[in-house]
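Field notebook, page 224. I keep forgetting to write these up properly, so this time I am using the form the group agreed on. The chain and the ligand, zinc ion, are recorded exactly as supplied. Prediction of the bound pose follows.
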Amino acid sequence: MTRSAPQFLCDPVLETVQVEHGFGTRGAVAPGGTLRPNQVHGNAVARFEGGSGVDPLEADALLSRIPTQSVAVVTADCVPVLVASADGGCVAAVHAGWRGLACGVIPAAIAALSEWGFTDLRAAIGPHARACCYEVDTPVLEALEGPFGPALAEAVRPTRPGHAGLDLQRLALEALSRGGIRSDHRGSAAAMCTVCHPELFDSFRRQGDQAGRMIHWVRPIRDA
Ligand SMILES: [Zn+2]
């Protein structure tokens, strides 16, 4: 029996700035030497500028401005966000589940890119548990209310008492928008639902502890 090779999904918004990247499907393997942080559902941002490695190691966003150095995050329902500067010379991989969105991992990553002098950004959202399949309870909504305010209501649809369907993508796009990334520079072409597509993705919601993780990577271009 033959099986086709695992694939990565790309986003046209990142292709326009020519950064190599991929949102992983099940079993897809990132380029050798790809760095990733120890993810903890927080808002710490790690940076790679060459030298001895990632600092800090525990983080949910990782920046690189070394052309040979790809960076990645892994997910199994959370939202992966890949960011690149307009010249392709700097990139970030961000892990943004509801906890990361609540504690501001996306604005933290954008601020770190800005500190390095990169303010004209492109960003793409990858596969995650979409609104069709993602129900949360009141404590989750309360955690998101502070950072998102009225925008949260737009991302919520009532289900059963004490619960609601939540559109993580809408919140991630809102956070990118607030970070100054305009709508045509924010992509979601690869944002398929991990729960709805068992043939392509692992999903924590669907498989629990049996779920594997997909890897999502991005690398600066050589001659930025
Ligand atoms: Zn779904």
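OBSERVATIONS:
- The chain has one domain: 8-219.
- The pocket of zinc ion is lined by residues 130, 132-133, 193, 195-196 (CB under 6 Å).
FOLLOW-UP: compare against the apo run.
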